[in-house]
Write a structure and sequence with these properties.
The structure is a homodimer.
Chain A (H helix, E strand, L loop, with lengths): L1 E6 L3 H12 L1 H8 L3 E7 L13 E2 L2 H5 L4 E6 L6 H11 L3 E4 L2 H17 L4 E2 L11 H7 L5 E7 L2 H13 L3 H10 L8 H4 L2 H14 L11 E2 L7 H9 L2 E11 L5 E11 L11 E8 L3 E8 L3 H16 L26 E7 L4 H4 L4 E3 L5 E8 L1 H8 L5 E7 L1
Parallel strand pairs in A: 1-2, 1-4, 2-3, 4-5, 5-6, 8-10, 10-16
Antiparallel strand pairs in A: 7-9, 7-11, 9-10, 11-12, 13-15, 13-16, 14-15
Helix pairs in contact in A: 1-12, 4-5, 5-10, 7-8
């Protein structure tokens, strides 16, 4: 029997308990040992929970217990969760988490701490919820240079954009609806301003660059709160879908680019079809070509599925996971946003944008003049149209 | 330095050599050791290859070399490949392969042989080419009961169906075009009659049932060679796409179902958007919900990407892979096709099919009467419409 602890008994923590308990038989058959939740650390009591007897408020009971091999950190945030994760790893207890804020902010230190203490720090659930993405990147794509990642990694914003499109409602109304359905939080800032996506693409970018750390704070993030039904209509007229895309590119010159912004996504791209709360991550490897990973990016059960998968990995004897490849924050290879060249669609209802961008590809659309401008920074683009009224633009993903 | 051998220097074998060589630096950085292709076993000589000096025709030079830790079997088929795989594993040499025929036919014996000789038999590339699917099933979904798999796992047939739809051409013409482009073989039987898909779904089904072996020969396989442009038009009129689907279901009563057949796929299903040579596999786990894995299911480079990923796994010190979970062929839990209940769309241009299937859901479509009939075997369905002319049906995937 392998004893584990849950730190933080919220939706994901309790979901993880449930999956490990309901599927205990198959898990035991698969790894040859039973996984037992011995302790649950939380400030609250849970008198109605079947696990109430295992709840403790005393961190020493967990981190001082030599029987506990794995701790599930589902507290969230980067304060208490950070302290508890350090305590666990320092005690040689492997930690599994869905906490994108903590992984993206303190990944280099925590991964090193795990290695130094001969245990592991796993975070498959931190990006894409239940969708396998971290382990496939580390393992299945281990022979590839990862050239590009483009992801719809935030279900809340994708749900809002889908509602705006399908119901013809404003951002504000779509947000209210999402809040009513539990898909958006009372304070929607982290989701709607792209901060959640920023953390997730920082994690994926660090992995894609072999551990060269991408600090989320250095990742430009533009959210969806300024988007209007006009933008949705424009996307449609141009044969695109309006999506919040978290983007990474290996520039091939030892530098990399990462940012989060609303994009016009060509209908030929698989990401265009991702609707509602679903997530999808497109990965391009130099030998793999493009692959897409699609599924439920949030929610108690899907996230618990990924957390529990990592718990099983951490429990396996002789488990050697490539997430132990060090994250190195001593230098940054990630460019400032102003220096990042990307593709844009520039459009206007009145101005002849094709004459402003002479070499750009002209798009055919009714009532709108539009061009695709390639390999330009947003700053250069803004400079070029400064003083010209009635011209707009969006990032473009083919 | 870790020495490996390639058995069979065809498109996938030489592609694997190339990825391991071109990306040697990053691979070395990732796993801490260099991977070196020491021997290439093939009947042919390759005087123009940079690897010509490593080519041998003598199997003893490979299997008798104690330096060789991993053999890449890219011979194909189940005769020579079978013998060589047994020799390698018996000598404690791990084997990595893209050979779906061999894995699906002799998996139970070969996995046991690997375990008995303290090495591994890995086959990520056998299903979905470059798309990560085997390892995510074993690892990321380790806490889930896998309830359902529906896959477009054969690029040739998907390409042909896409051409029939987009160009309005017949199966025969689309096949000729695919052959000209190198997407179909001179003898297209294995692809077009569903045999390739049958092997792949047998592998996925065995994994999904925790090693309870699914013999590919027991999997009902209907291909695409009888499909017409009428079928394509019908699919469109019914809001569906016509796709060759490899299907698995855990029936929840300790039995399972697997089959390959053309399906009308609802446009709401992510598989409906998979066009051309691409593959996609939809997996439903009891906690994960649905996830889709999409990408290039064949071709030298994507397949080599997956093979090389497995080589890296096999080379890692202390590598413990769940593909070592035994495959047990002592009992079969898979139902005979005649006993498998599934969903169909039944349609007619003349007959009132709704009166034949009283409880079925009626579909609205111009010029066609159609119903969705649920949980019925194809045999029961055929019996019910026997003697009634002008009624057709297809499997249905929502």
């Amino acid at each position: 029997m392998i004893n584990i602890a849950i730190l933080g008994f919220g939706v994901v923590g309790s979901g993880t308990c449930e999956v490990l308990s309901k599927n205990a038989d198959i898990i035991k058959k698969r790894i040859g040992e039973e996984i037992y939740v011995k302790k649950i650390l939380d400030l609250r009591d849970f008198p109605d929970s079947p696990y109430k007897d295992r709840v403790t408020h005393d961190a020493d009971e967990v981190f001082g217990d030599p029987d506990i091999k794995v701790a599930v950190e589902t507290i969230g945030g980067a304060s208490v969760a950070y302290e508890f994760t350090k305590r666990a790893l320092s005690a040689g207890i492997s930690v599994v988490t869905s906490n994108k804020e903590l992984v993206s902010t303190h990944g280099p230190e925590l991964i090193k701490l795990a290695k130094d203490n001969n245990c592991v720090y796993l975070f498959e659930a931190a990006v894409g919820g239940g969708i396998p993405i971290i382990r496939p990147l580390y393992k299945c794509l281990a022979a590839n240079n990862i050239l590009k990642i483009a992801g719809i990694v935030n279900g809340t914003t994708n749900y809002i954009l889908s509602s705006m499109k399908n119901e013809g409602i404003s951002y504000e109304d779509a947000l209210k609806e999402a809040q009513k359905k539990g898909y958006a939080e009372a304070d929607p800032t982290a989701d709607c301003e792209g901060i959640d996506a920023q953390r997730k693409i920082a994690i994926l970018s660090t992995i894609a660059m072999d551990g060269k750390y991408c600090n989320p704070e250095s990742v430009h993030a533009e959210g969806i709160s300024k988007l209007t039904t006009d933008d949705i209509a424009l996307a449609k007229a141009l044969g695109c879908e309006l999506k919040l895309i978290a983007f990474f590119r290996n520039n091939g010159d030892s530098s990399a680019s990462a940012y989060v912004a609303p994009h016009f996504v060509s209908r030929e791209c698989m990401l265009a079809d991702v609707e509602g709360v679903f997530n999808a991550v497109l990965v391009e490897g130099d030998y793999l070509g493009e692959a897409v990973f699609y599924g439920r990016g949030a929610g108690s059960y899907p996230t618990a599925s990924a957390v529990a998968g990592d718990v099983i990995e951490a429990c396996c004897k002789g488990s050697v996971d490539m997430s132990l490849r060090a994250w190195d924050d001593s230098v940054s290879v990630f460019k400032d946003y102003d220096d990042i060249k990307s593709d844009f669609i520039v459009y206007s209802k009145t101005e002849d944008v094709a004459s402003v961008f002479a070499d750009a590809k002209v798009l055919e659309a009714e009532g709108i003049k539009a061009v695709i401008v390639s390999a330009v920074s947003e700053k250069e683009l803004a400079d070029k149209i400064a003083g010209k009224s009635g011209i707009g633009y969006k990032h473009y993903l083919k």
